[in-house]
Amino acid sequence: MYFVSRLEELADLDQLIDEHRAGSESRPGVAVLIGLGGVGKTALAVTWARNHANRFRDGHLYADLCGFSPDSTATPTLVLAGFLRALGVEPDQVPITLAEQVGLYRTITATRRMMLVVVLDNAVSVQQVRPLIPASAGCVVVVTSHRNLEGLFSDGAQFIEVPPLDQEHAEVLLTELLGTERARKDVGAVAELAHLCGCLPIALLVAAARLASHPKWPVSRVVEQLRNEQARLAALDRFSGTENQVTAVLDWARNELEPHVAELYRLLGRLPVREFGADLAAAVTGVAEPRITFALQTLVDASLLEEVHNDRYRFHDLVRLHARTQRAHDDDHVVPRAARWYLREMTRANLVVIPLRWRVSPMADELADEPPAYASDVDALDWLTGELPNVLAVLEDAFLDRHYELVWQLCEALWELMLYRRPFAEWLRSHELGIIAAQRCSDPVAESRLHYQLGRAHLDLDQQDLAARENQLAVDLAQAAGDRRTESAALEQLGRIAQARNDLDTAIECFTASLHLEDALGIPRGVAARHRRLGDAYVHAGRYDDAELHLIIAQQMFAELGSEKDEARTALGLARIDAHRQRFDVAVERLNRARLVLNRSASPAYESDVLRALAEVAVLNGNIEQARSYLTEAIALVSDLGGVSLALASAALAKLAPADEAEIPRNNDTA
Fold first, then answer.
1. Which of 166, 345, 465, 585 reaches 20 to 30 Å from 500, CA-CA?
2. Contact (Cβ atoms closer than 8 angstroms) between residue 406 and residue 440
3. How confident is the model at residue 25, as a pLDDT?
4. 19 vs 627, higher pLDDT
5. Per-residue confidence at 242, pLDDT binned at 50, 70, 90?
């Protein structure tokens, strides 16, 4: 990050904080940095916060509110969810509504008397900022915006204008960018270039990048090119607003591009993602390798695109906004092309994680003959996790553009990631849109599937009433549409809800009905899975002979199907039976084998299930300390995940009072 001067603005921030701490304020200090995009507000805020890190014992929070990208402006709800997690709130304890989030955020910061610096970057409105202001007087909030957020005055805000650099420091920045030796050869041209760029850092970077890509050029050559843009320079002089200066500089940079690169710039500006690779760029533009890589590098060289790391790129917010002003009627294909690309790539990953799952979307059938795209579950899930923010951004834009068929398919394709990694806030939001999209497509099968997936989120959050509602909706829609697959899946989930409520008769009834459907449909994996559910329910009821019958059938079927993970999960119920029959060594050996398999699945929740089963065996064997160790490890595994996995492990540990060595926690498997 290039940072020069700003001594006056840094001093203003220092003075604001000193006055705030010296006074009797009962609320946090708020500073609003106002100025043109690309003027260096972010660099100023981050540099000041870094310089004063020792003054804020509780650290700092940062959020990019994306004010320069109106289509993807960050909502206070999503930002607060991240802040609350950063402050130690478990994911499943983060409230859903904004009002509840604000209340919890302010309670935490006030009761702990926290000393935080909160940087809110690229704010677009007062309504976006106000919920993010903490309650503790020891906190300081630094907001950056290209708008005058004067409504924050009632919150005690002080406003600091961040103008372009003065002439002297603009020349210093150019000298740093070009190198001292080159700049000294043409001092007059450097001074004129700084002037023609309006001393605006982003414009200086663009001009310097042009020179850097042509090391034999004198600085005066770029100065001459700027002089030829008389209309633009006249506009910069004429308009009092600084936005037009940025537009003129970026127009100049764009016009220096070859026509096909300028077209790429226009199309990529329509992408809603925060960063992207050459593969996605090729998919949405139709430009194939190696031309796409060369064109992207040309944009990087022109400072119109930033190379984050190898083959990953992103636009500065303001540059993306400029690119989007170039829109034409023929670029409406960008978002649906991006959605189709993500649907395909997500399905390729999903087929590695759960290859035998039935999917409503036809994409899996299209990929049936392709070799596996990833070497392991972990690799596939890691890719899905890394791309989740981009997928959600594309899903949101596709919804706004009414590409409803793609929206529900993208939502369905989130299943494997949600099941294994469980990002609950994203799960709930995406499925809200997906269900609406399926409804607008008049597709009850897709709608039923998404209600079922949403029901699983509520089940894993231990929100049993909501889970039951969503799954009953799934059953009703599936029955009306003749979709017996989703009907069976939702019945199975209703059985799990009943089991969690200790209504074992209903649970067994639901599992049995689902088993009959899977058998009628001729789905061996579904039949095996329902036998496993029935076996676990009978273990829960203490009917070990009945349980063993179903679990052995399930294990044999999974082994024949080559479903190692399901076979391992079935072993948990069999191990519990072994332990109750005093075969402790057999139970532990069975569970350790299962743990090795489930550890490779990259799901902390599944591994924690094994640890809870090991703890139950240890309790029955009279080894309370060993049980406590297993449960402590299970809690550590799912502490960030939250949800029912954490609740079950925590409840089991709480039952292990020193004098209580006889009672085993009942199995309430929700894996």
1. 585
2. no
3. 63
4. 627
5. very low
Which among 210, 226, 225, 219 has a CA at the least distance from the CA of 186? 219
CA 285, CA 266: separation in Å to the nearest integer? 10
pTM (global) more than 0.70: no
Tokens representing 351 are 């087929």
Instruction: Give residue 656's identity as a one-letter amino acid code.
Output: L
Convert 463-526 into a string of H (helix), E (strand) and C (coil). CHHHHHHHHHHHHHHHHHHCCHHHHHHHHHHHHHHHHHCCCHHHHHHHHHHHHHHHHHHCCHHH
Count of other CB atoms within 10 angstroms of residue 85: 16
Q: How far is CA 176 from CA 8, 223, 282, in A?
A: 21, 18, 35
Pairing of strands 140-145, 312-314: unpaired
d(CA 63, CA 123): 9
Summarised one tens digit per residue, pLDDT across range 273-313 is 989 999 999 999 999 888 899 999 888 776 678 788 778 99
Cis before 218? omega within 30: no
3-state helix vs strand vs coil in the chain, percent to 5: 65, 5, 30
* CB 395, CB 407: distance < 8 Å: yes
Round to whole Å and give the CA distance between 326 and 323: 6
551 vs 422: CA distance, rounded Å: 27
| Residue 496 Cα distances to 74, 535, 598, 626, 670, angstroms | 36, 12, 21, 29, 7
pLDDT band at residue 245 under the 50/70/90 scheme: low
Structure tokens at 76: 């206070």
Distance from C-alpha of 269 to C-alpha of 577, rounded to nearest angstrom: 59
666: pLDDT strictly greater than 80: no
Say whether pLDDT at 595 is over 70.
Answer: yes
State how far the Cα of 515 lies from the Cα of 534, in Å rounded to an integer: 9
Closest CA to 36 of 247, 189, 273, 228: 247
Q: What is the per-residue pLDDT across 103-148, written as a single tens digit (0 to 9) for each?
A: 999 999 988 888 889 999 988 889 999 999 999 888 899 999 877 7
**Residues pairing with 28 in the sheet:** none
Is the confidence at residue 568, as pLDDT, over 90?
Answer: yes
Are 506 and 498 spatial neighbours (Cβ–Cβ below 8 Å)? yes
Parallel, antiparallel, or unpaired for β 140-145 and 117-123?
A: parallel
Q: Which two tokens stand for residue 268?
A: 């990529």
Q: For 183-202, what is the mean pLDDT? A: 84
Widest pairwise Cα distance in the chain: 92
| Sequence-separated (6 or more) residues with CB below 8 Å from residue 253 | 206, 210, 302, 303, 304
The backbone region for 156, taken as left when phi is positive above 0, alpha when psi lies in -120 to 50, beta otherwise, is left
